Amino acid sequence: MWTLHQFPLCPFSRKVRILLAEKDVEFAMQLAYPWEKSDELMDLNRAGQTPVLSGERGGPLVDSTVIAEYFDETVQKSPLMGSGASARAEVRRLTIWFDQKCYAEAVNPLLLERMYKRLVLRQPPDARMLRVAGQALAQHLDYIEYLLGERRWLAGGSFSLADISAAAHLSVADYLGGLSFDGYPDAKTWYSTIKSRPSVRRLLPDRMEGLSPPQHYDKLDF
Amino acid sequence: MWTLHQFPLCPFSRKVRILLAEKDVEFAMQLAYPWEKSDELMDLNRAGQTPVLSGERGGPLVDSTVIAEYFDETVQKSPLMGSGASARAEVRRLTIWFDQKCYAEAVNPLLLERMYKRLVLRQPPDARMLRVAGQALAQHLDYIEYLLGERRWLAGGSFSLADISAAAHLSVADYLGGLSFDGYPDAKTWYSTIKSRPSVRRLLPDRMEGLSPPQHYDKLDF
Ligand SMILES: N[C@@H](CCC(=O)N[C@@H](CS)C(=O)NCC(=O)O)C(=O)O
Ligand SMILES: N[C@@H](CCC(=O)N[C@@H](CS)C(=O)NCC(=O)O)C(=O)O
C-alpha cells in the first residue's frame, strides 16, 4: 500500500488526499513536518518538501502534480485532467495558478503567520502581512467568481484537478480563519458543492495539533 | 502559426524554444518583458508572466510545462516526457526541480542582480546575493553530477524535458557569467552535448539588449 507523507495543513498534501480518494486509491498516512528536515523525508525527497507518496513499485512519487499525473495515467476512474489537449492545458494552467500564485501570495503567508509562527517560532503574527495575504486571497476569489460566471467547474464543464487544487488551498486558508465568501456567491456555491464530496468531507475532521479552526470550518452549511 | 511571447533571458521561454525546435513546430517570436505588465501580455496571461504561446486553435497556451505537455500530447516526433508512468513521474519531478528550486535559489537571483538591476533599476548588483546564488548553483551542479553518475540523461536513458529545463536555466546562468563546471566533469560533458543540439544552438546567438554574455557563452568548446 502507498504511504502519504504529509501534515494536516499542507495544501499540496490535501490536494493529493482528495485526488487519491476521487480515484479510489487506498493509502496510509504518515506525519512529516518539512521544517524538521528529518532524514526520512530528505531521503524520500531531496527537495525536503511534503507531500511524498512512497511504497509501491519503484521510487517514491514526489510533488502533488506529479502524483496527480501519475494516477491519472494509471487509474481510469474519475479522469481529472480534462479531455483533449486544449482542455488539459486549461486544467494544468489553473492548477499551476493555485499551486504557485495563490499559494505564494496568500496561503503560504497565512501558514507562516498563523501556523508556523505560533507552533514553531512562538511569535505573534504580523498584522500587516495578514492584511496583505487577505487582499491577495480576495483577488483569487474574484478570479474564481469570474471563471464560474462562464463555467460549471473552474477549468470547464467537468470537475478536474484545478478544482481540487483550488479547494485544497482555500480549505487551508479557511482553517486559518482567512476565508470569507462575502460578495462571491458563485464561489461559495462551488465551494459548498466541493465540501460535500466524500473525498473532501473525509479530510475536514483532521486537526493540526495546537491549532483549532473556526467553528464553521467543517460545516457543509457555512 | 504560433507566436511565442518571450524575452532572451527568460529561462522558461528558452525551455519552450528548445522543445518546440525538438518537435519541429514552427513559431514566430515577440518580445515581452513581464516587468512592463503590458496590456497585451496581461490579456494573454492574467499571471503576467512569460512565456505565452498564442495563435492557433483556441486560447493562448500559458506556462512552459503546460506548453510542453500540450505538444507532447499532440506531436509524436521526439517524445520528451519519458515512457511509462514511473519514467514520466521522474521526468516531471526533475523538470519541477529545475523550474522551481534551481530558478528560485540561483537563476532568479542572478537575473535580478545582473539583468534587472542593470537594465531596469540602474543599480549595481549586491555582491552578497551573487555569492549566495553562486553557492546554490553549485549545489544544483552537484546534483546533476550525481544524477549523471547513474544515468545517461538527467531523468534516465532518454533525452527529456528535464534535460531541456536544466539546460534552459543553466544557459541563462552562463549568459550572466555565473556558471563554472570546474569539478563537474560529467555535467560539463552533458552540457556540451546539449549545446551542440540544433534546438539549443539556434538560441545561443540571441542577445539581451544592453547586456553581453562572456566570451565562452556560445562556444561549443567552452
Ligand atoms: N511543488 C510542490 C510544493 C510542495 C510544498 O511547497 N510543500 C510545502 C509544505 S505545504 C513544503 O514542503 N515547504 C517546505 C519547503 O519548501 O522547504 C508540490 O506541488 O507538491
Ligand atoms: N511557471 C511559469 C514561470 C514563468 C516565469 O516565472 N516567468 C518569469 C520570467 S523568466 C516572469 O514572467 N516573471 C515575472 C512574474 O512572475 O511576475 C512557467 O513555467 O512558464
From TrEMBL, chains A, B:
Superkingdom in the source lineage: Bacteria
Gene3D superfamilies for this protein: 1.20.1050.10, Glutaredoxin
GO molecular function: transferase activity
Any Pfam family the entry gives: GST_C_2
Record has Protease as a keyword: no
Domain GST N-terminal, residue spans: 1-79
Cellular compartments per GO CC: cytoplasm
Keywords: Transferase
Domain GST C-terminal residue range list: 84-214
Protein name, per record: Glutathione S-transferase family protein
Organismal lineage: Bacteria, Pseudomonadati, Pseudomonadota, Alphaproteobacteria, Sphingomonadales
